[in-house]
Prior knowledge:
This protein is α/β, with parallel strands linked by helices. It is built from nine helices and seven strands; from the N terminus they run H-H-H-E-E-H-H-E-H-H-E-H-E-E-H-E. The strands form two sheets. Strands 1, 2, 3, 6 and 7 form a five-stranded parallel beta sheet that branches. Strands 4-5 form a two-stranded antiparallel sheet. Helix 4 crosses helix 5 and helix 5 (113-129) packs across helix 7. The chain is globular. The relative contact order is 0.14. The model is unreliable at 1-10 (pLDDT under 50).
Amino acid sequence: MTISDQVHAVNRSALDRVYQWSKKLQLRCFPATCLLCGAPGEGDRDLCVACQRDLPQNRSACPCCATPLVNATEARCGQCQRQPPVFARSVAPWLYREPLDYLIKSLKFQGRLSVARLLGDLLGGELVRRDCPRPQAIIPVPLHASRMRERGFNQALELARPLARKLELPLLAAAVKRVRPTPPQMQLDAASRRGNVRGAFIVARALSLRHVAVLDDVMTTGSTVTEVARVLRTAGVEEISIWACGRTPY
């Protein structure tokens, strides 16, 4: 281990101790409360056991794009069999419907950053439980500067912060840049979504990484994460995992 690695390890250890201490103090002053029903949360998590059980599980999903499979015996969905994506795999543990959709909308449109801390922690737990291949870094899907000014935060980045901390992975918030503003994807059909994000991203810094995870809040058609993965592959990244909280079947 080099001297710089040793210094980095010491700094991380010190920061972790400060974080754990501040977390304990926060819980003592402000006990965990379920963001869905207001009941006491489980441990340090702002979600009660009953509401966590109500989160809609994305079972029997395609390992490539995470879309729910009609036939659970299929190895991949039909789309991924016909045209394999540029990324290696996708993990989206929950379906984008009640009550997950309420949580994500309250994060994106009401600025409830406590939701990002909750969902980032839950997603990290699912990735560990499933023993998913471990990337070298996490790259959140970026917002364009104009959307960032309008919203004040990037929901993917806010989800990535607790996730990176839980998994002890580097967070590369500025690795990919959104260089072209685009209309919201929710207003478009699948074909229009692909065209909408084409050329919208660039890799903003040199990456000497073999495997990264691209993080977004929800996958619908996968057009946005596909375009981010495409520019990363062009920049030399060999293996790309897609991580999201929710999956909308298409």
